Amino acid sequence: MSLRHAVLGLIVELDGASGYDLMKLFEISLANVWTATQSQVYGELAKLTADGLIEVAAEGPRGRKEYRATDAGRDELRRWLVEEQPRPARRDGVLLKVFFLGQLEPERARAYLRDSAATMGERRDGLAALQQEVTWGDDNLSLYGRLTLEYGRRFFAMRKEWAEWAEAELARHAAPPEDADRA
Amino acid sequence: MSLRHAVLGLIVELDGASGYDLMKLFEISLANVWTATQSQVYGELAKLTADGLIEVAAEGPRGRKEYRATDAGRDELRRWLVEEQPRPARRDGVLLKVFFLGQLEPERARAYLRDSAATMGERRDGLAALQQEVTWGDDNLSLYGRLTLEYGRRFFAMRKEWAEWAEAELARHAAPPEDADRA
DNA sequence: CCTTGCATGTAATGGGTTACATGATTTA
DNA sequence: TAAATCATGTAACCCATTACATGCAAGG
Fold it and tell me: Which of A50, A57, A91, A174 could form a disulfide with A106 if both were Cys (CB 3.0 to 4.6 A apart)?
């Protein structure tokens, strides 16, 4: 149940936000951390309100509802941070394909890995560029946002290097071993 | 819909398997790639059969059903491998917590990262030990299984190093800057 | 006045997790 | 004969995705 804490966490950090505000945050700052659709956000706001963890603090134009965390909500966020230990995701579509790459011709398998390496390289460069562009403030979201961005950069870099290594491994296996052949 | 292709892929590679066989494979060889519960496996076998991608090739003791891929099934696996491009997961519970770590006292936040680094180090070492122990064959699952295992090792290594870096960053911010103080 | 953006909600469908439920075979 | 293992299946519930549906407000 992490969506709940993502929504709650943003409301606490921003000290009040509407569903619409949250959607934008999910699209931008949480994009590489936790995704959510519009209908999930509004649904979760309703549930959090029903459970007394947030409340409507103000209503604005166009039916805008500004939510703020209650004391119970802040307690719950803290409890989640301290007590609950997340288990890393155990599902990866890219790796799943690699697992079955033996079903393709070796050349196609290698092409898949080359392709993957290129994509990962682009994403790494994209995040690296972001790191250069953004001017970071002294607030919490800046500091911790910077940490997660660096994580993303390292993640893509790792994947790129791994894909290149894997491609080379396949090449090594595809080619007849030449070592013993000649001095 | 990747579970479908995970099940189908295993049946193709093994050239026949029961639901029970598949469960064990999900627990062991696919553990770091794609997880599935027992009820998912049996449910998916029923759907794949209904769609004509696999069929019951033999029945054994205790109601055991050995499934084998049909031609349509092999075609579908290939199509999935070649045509469909997976998008990397965009959800990570560990990172989500880091994003909100500003809600804790700095010392607690740093403890969380130190803890995380230790856990990741253990998991990295566990996979490294596995790599040493296992004697690899020349078959496809060995070759490609070795690639995904190495991915896992690099993944945990990256996370460990990142957590250590992040912890140091927090320390840097928590401590008053001493640089300008003295020569 | 028309377009863009702000703003919220619901319904249908599918996938995933947990728990329940049952029974046959092998091995100690 | 008792325990472990093999073996399959169903039901309830929750979470996520996609699509549908509506309407106000501000700016050009």
Answer: A174
Report pLDDT for A122: 93
Q: Which domain holds residue A100?
A: 93-174
Region B102-125 average pLDDT: 93
Tell which of B26, B59, B83 closes a domain: B83
- What is the per-residue DSSP string for chain A? -HHHHHHHHHHHHHTSB-HHHHHHHHHTTTTTTB---HHHHHHHHHHHHHTTSEEEEEE-GGG-EEEEE-HHHHHHHHHHHHH--PPPP-B-HHHHHHHTGGGS-HHHHHHHHHHHHHHHHHHHHHHHHHHHHPPP-SSHHHHHHHHHHHHHHHHHHHHHHHHHHHHHHHHHHHSPP-TTT--
The residue of chain B nearest to residue A166, with distances taken between CA atoms, is B147
pLDDT for A140-169, tens place per residue? 778 888 898 899 899 999 999 999 999 999
- Does B145 contact A99 at a Cβ distance shorter than 8 Å? yes
Q: Identify, with chain letter, the residue nearest to nucleotide D25 (CA–C1').
A: A62
Task: Indicate whether A138 and A75 sit together in one domain.
Answer: no
Give chain A's residues under pLDDT 70. 175-183
The answer to whether A33 contacts B92, with C-beta atoms less than 8 Å apart, is yes
- pLDDT score recorded for residue A183: 47
A128 and A162 in a common domain = yes
Question: Of all nucleotides in the shown strands, which has a C1' nearest the CA of B35?
Answer: C16
Top pLDDT among B4 and B131 is at B4
- The percentage of chain A sitting over the pLDDT mark of 90, rounded to a whole number, equals 72
**Does residue A49 belong to any structural domain of this protein?**
yes
Q: Quick check: is B49 in a domain?
A: yes
The enclosing domain of B98 has a CATH number of 1.20.58
CA of A65 to C1' of C11 (A): 23
In the predicted structure, residue B13 carries a pLDDT above the cut 70: yes
CA B183 to CA B181: how far, in whole Å? 7
Across the range B118-129, mean pLDDT stands at 92
Strands B65-69 and B54-59: antiparallel
Position A37 in a domain: yes
Residue B179, in any domain of the structure: no
Residue B101 sits in the same domain as residue B62 = no
Same-domain check for residues A109 and A142: yes
